[in-house]
UniProtKB/TrEMBL annotation:
EC numbers, comma separated: 3.1.3.25
Reaction(s) this enzyme catalyzes, per UniProt: a myo-inositol phosphate + H2O = myo-inositol + phosphate
GO molecular function, one term: metal ion binding
Origin superkingdom: Bacteria
UniProt-annotated binding residues for Mg(2+): 64, 83, 85-86, 211
Protein name: Inositol-1-monophosphatase
Gene3D superfamilies: 3.40.190.80, Fructose-1,6-Bisphosphatase, subunit A, domain 1 (3.30.540.10)
Annotated segments matching region Disordered: 270-307
GO biological process assignments: inositol metabolic process; phosphatidylinositol phosphate biosynthetic process; signal transduction
Known cofactor(s): Mg(2+)
Signal peptide: none
Enzyme class: hydrolase
Source taxonomy: Bacteria, Pseudomonadati, Pseudomonadota, Betaproteobacteria, Burkholderiales
Keywords noted in UniProt: Hydrolase, Magnesium, Metal-binding
Annotated gene: suhB
Amino acid sequence: MLNVAVKAARAAGALINRASLDLDTVRVAAKQLNDFVTEVDHAAEAAIIDTLRSAYPEHGIWAEESGRREGKGKGRAYTWIIDPLDGTTNFIHGFPVYCVSIALMVEGRLEQAVVYDPTRNDLFTASKGRGAYLNDRRIRVAKRTQLRECLLSTGFPFRPGDAFQRYLQMLGDVMPRVAGVRRPGSAALDLAYVAAGFTDGFFELGLSPWDVAAGALLVTEAGGLIGNFTGEADFLERKECVAANPRIYGQLVGVLQRYSQFGAANARADAAPASDETASSTAAAPAPDTPATPAAGGRPSAADAPW
């Protein structure tokens, strides 16, 4: 199944690369203010779905542009989660940070993942229990243990109704505690970079399942943790996501949990900022040589996680 997903991602990537050579001719529409879709998104999604359906006609599809279609018969347990062009705003401006994201969920568990960066021909893949890879080379999350040494990535709110002031407060809480924060503009690629150890962690609000599904499996198969801002594994449809290696994950959750919409016991955004000592006290054990198994008690639970 992973090979079919790779074939689909490369087909979409080829369409995207051809279109990028003449961006002035690409038709762009706005789903809402600052939320764009192009004919390339639609064409790439169609190419992905055609490839997947040719191999697995009964499987379900959950795609950003065309919506959700349940599987049939024996394929009801299988759902492909697709973002054909994650980073559309970057693409239409010629800013070369965007990707194709494809994940397979089987009975509610993420089993296969592909994130393909067509501008660099970088192919990130993962299969449940078999590790994560970049261009056939095994990848692992970074080994840093102190938040102050970390480079993080994030995304800014950009749609009407997004909690911009809440995000600014959160960013102001995080930035003094880390070495740097970057905003590349593609959540799926951000998570792939966490898995590869290029960045140490990631956090963002307002994400959809197709933004994070493939990247989530990459992170966990590379030895990292991913969850919502309370540290729990229920993140896929919760519109808040944090990912990092286990030690940094614990420290990030200590800072971010007051900005979560979940958990009545959590401190809220109007609470006093947590101290570095408080954030550090939530740190987990170092990442093992095999993909990390999230612990209970505020960490992603294996029973609840979609991976």
